[in-house]
Amino acid sequence: MLLSIPEIHTDLLWDLSVLFGSLCILYFSFIFFFRNRLSAKSRNISDRRKELTPVISNFLFYGEEASKEEKYEYVGLKVEMREFLKDPINRSILKDILLDLQRDLTGDSRNRLLSMYKDFDLHLDAMAKLNSRRWEVVTKGIVELTQMQVVEAYTAIRKFINHRKNVIRRHAQIATVSLKHEGIGHFLDSNRYPISEWQQIKILEVLREKEDFIPPNFGVWLMSANKDVVLFALRLIRYYNQTDANTSVTELLKHRDEEIKQAAIDCIKEFGITDAIPTLMAAFSRAKRDTRILILDAIGTIGKEEHIPFLREVHEKVSNFNVRSKALAAVNTIAPGTILPFKDLDPLIKPESQTLIAEEANEASGDTKEIPTEVETEKIEVAPEADRDLVAPTDVTAEEDIVVSGEHSELFYEDLEVFDHCFMEELNEILEGRNKDDEEDHPGFLPLDFLPLVTEKPTEMDKKKPKKKARKRLWQLRVNYEEVHPDAEFRKELEDILSRVEVQNPEGDTEVEYLNFNFLPFVVGNEPEGDASELPEAEEQESPEEEITPAPASETPMEKVQVVDMIEAENTCSLVDWEALQNEVAEDLSDNSQEEVRQVENKTVDETPGHSIFEELFSKCDEDSKLILLREIPELGDHRELSFLDALKKEPSTRVRKMASDVKRKLQKRLEAEAGKQEQKQSLIQWEKSPQPGDLLEFDLEELKKQGK
Amino acid sequence: MKKILLADDDELLASLLNYRLDKAGYKVHWSCDGRDVKLELEKEIPDIIVSDIMMPYFSGLELVDYVRNTLQSKVPIIIISSAGNEENVLSAFELGANDFISKPVSPAELLVRVTRELNKA
């Protein structure tokens, strides 16, 4: 099947072509026509401008001293111009030329230009624009009249000051102020709308450029109901230094509006109105933060020393950091150096210490070279003592006479080195002295009195006491504990280990010697070393911890439980007041029945051997593993394992039970053997502690007998 | 008759100043842009140059530099500048301008300055 071409009438195609061609021609003709028209118009205007420019120049530079011919020429030109200006286009061109020129000219030429504008009645066209219903035309009219300084338009323009259209209003305000001197007064009197900051600046600029302007008393407008008028009046008062409005300005401190208050404060500060200070202080309490800062700043600037207590009070009572800082700054502004820097200062930096170091260095080295006692210092200004007492803030713990030294850090480290050296020397002397001298004279402890006693101040948390109920509950707490050192036994063991020294005699045999460490203090954990009465008096006084530490090992089991409880409580709760707690415990004890005491006693006796480390392992392993562990006990275990092995009698597995009894027997044997050795060592230690001549002799004889055998 | 080269792209102001200076007895040649000024200077060095700083193609500063360094001429140059354009004025002085006058211009003041510079020269 063949596709047939649609039949289009050739005439139709021709018709369409003609139509679109005509439209194109019409379009381009339209563009061409208007373009030419606009060009012709601009050319025409340009030509007319060129024609007018020399005429304007002639008018502008026509002088009184002109010759007769020139005068005739001038009059003739004027007549020509009047005829020329009958054409509205010519009027428009001349107006544009004059408006352009007035921007570039100044002085006499400009004044002539403005008069020419009025002479040719061009201002009437502009005034006619004021009646237009279109806001942009009205605005153009106002601007033109303002630029050409047509004073006659003042009355017509001032009506627009409160125009609802913002643009008209703004230009009318400027025109009113610009055209007449009294314009500013009228504007401030009648303005009902806000005046923007930018508008205020522009009006101020207009006023500044006005020649022979005598500013009115702007204090009159401080009572205006319009907030912006008051603010603008304050600005003008400051600009024209109208100090006669001081009373009104001071009264504005009572204004409810913070902005007005702040502007008034600025004014007071600038004029230095000291009479306003009481009002400033009174307004402080009701002011917001920014206003407070401004008030303090103003007081700092214009205040005197009598106002410092107020500033100090502000610093103490107000919580806001900025306000507090400003108060301090104000104090220092009034009396410089009254308040000194006090935060994060190094208390070790003192001018006296430098002198001391210098002297010490002289003495130590014996050097005759003079060490300067006054190093170059950057001194923070220090106020007189009395002043500082007067105004120093309560929370300030400022170091007095703080001197920041450039060389201080070096001196400080030098000081530490000297201290270390002296300390080591003294320590060596003491130790040597103890080796040489008889030990009987000082059987107690190493005299460490020269060391500083460092204690930590109790914090607020430490001072808190637990509630009574809580304390009672503390007493009722079931405590699992482990005796780290079972009293004197532990000490013996430790001393044995420490004092045992193997020495070779001249024959080549090894001998065991025991050293005396009695002079060393015995301090273990939280518990005291033996009887507290053994401690020297000074130490008892200086260590408050010992007053609250539990009783010695010689106490009854019941007491022991108390002790453990209290240690546990001390470890778990640092808030306990130990004295109070001890009293509490004592009271509770007296209340408890004998039965309870017995129960606790029995329990304590059972628990005293302590906790076996194998017990925990045992609970988590299978039978074979238990047997392996049991095999290790005879070698590794101690008396704590005995009770654990006893407990294994209840074990379901017969193999474990058997093994347990076997292991217990072996362990007991080992412990007994070790106990025998301990006794022997104990006698030696006892002798070391308190050697008697007889004992020494007896001991020597026995040793000789043994050696003889 | 002293010859003044007036270089300003503001036709209206230039014609006004031209009229004033002409009336004062000077022969004024007005150039509306920098290129024209350059061509005019190549032809003939005037007795004094009054030039605006802001001009198309060839600024007032370039003109001063061209006259002082390229042409090696000591002809007096008065610069016209807008108010608040002190930086350019200082540059012009550094390059060798003799005087300056700021807009809005007082034709009478300009005349006085021109006369003074010509008398100095």
Automatic annotation (TrEMBL), chain A:
InterPro entries linked to this entry: ARM-like (IPR011989), ARM-type_fold (IPR016024)
Disordered: annotated segments: 526-560
Superkingdom of the source species: Bacteria
Transmembrane segments: 12-34
Keywords: Membrane, Transmembrane, Transmembrane helix
Signal peptide start and end residues: none
Biased composition range(s): Acidic residues: 528-548
Protein name: HEAT repeat domain-containing protein
The organism of origin for this protein: Muriicola marianensis
From TrEMBL, chain B:
Domain Response regulatory: 3-118
Organism: Muriicola marianensis
InterPro entries tied to this protein: CheY-like_superfamily (IPR011006), Sig_transdc_resp-reg_receiver (IPR001789), WalR-like (IPR039420)
Keywords, in A-Z order: DNA-binding, Phosphoprotein, Transcription, Transcription regulation, Two-component regulatory system
Keyword field contains Transcription: yes
Protein name: Response regulatory domain-containing protein
Keyword Acetylation: no
Residues with 4-aspartylphosphate modification: 52
SUPFAM superfamilies on file: CheY-like
